[in-house]
Amino acid sequence: MTAAPILPERSEWTVDDLDDLPKDLPYELVNGRLIVPSPTPLHQFICARVMFALEQHCPDDYFVSIDQSLSVDRRNEPRPDVVAVRVEHANRSPVPVEAAVLAVEVASPDSTFRDRYDKARLYAAAGVPSYRVIDPLREKVTLTELLLSPKGGYEPSVETDGLITIDRPWKTTMDLPAWTARRRSVLERAGT
């Protein structure tokens, strides 16, 4: 068994520096900061539910993916938890951010600020039409949808913890109360 690779030390990262990383390391680059996520099974459960909901009515000219890198600029290559992109980019990584019609982040204890503010600004500046943050850290799983404003930036569109159907970018129904109940059941059984 070989020793784990030591990551180069940098205070500021660019996409050019990513070539120095092991190819199988899941990372994202946000505002020059290298982030190596380690999601929990509950986080991934929510991501899968979002993906399945989007896949239900996904048009043939789009593709939904989990944990897909988006190429934005030299200091940013984020990996939204779920992203909908034009199908011609389905076999490419990173995908150019211009191909994304929706980015979804599922908040975790160490990503809440980054998901709600840093990535919202990043995706809005890059022109991603719709951005959703799913927050499973609240008492009830909550969805916040932000839409690109003609004035720049995002404007809030929806915030709910209920059963919701959204028609953007296509019809998607999400049963947030069912996700909350499943999370509660799992946490009770886990003793946490």
TrEMBL record:
Example of a GO MF term: endonuclease activity
Pfam annotation, one family: Uma2
Domain annotation Putative restriction endonuclease: ranges: 16-156
Keywords, sorted A to Z: Endonuclease, Hydrolase, Nuclease
Top-rank taxon: Bacteria
InterPro entries: Nuclease_put_TT1808, Restrct_endonuc-II-like, Uma2
Cited PANTHER family: SLL1072 PROTEIN, SLR1083 PROTEIN
Protein name (Swiss-Prot/TrEMBL): Uma2 family endonuclease
Organism in which the protein naturally occurs: Micromonospora cathayae
Upper lineage: Bacteria, Bacillati, Actinomycetota, Actinomycetes, Micromonosporales
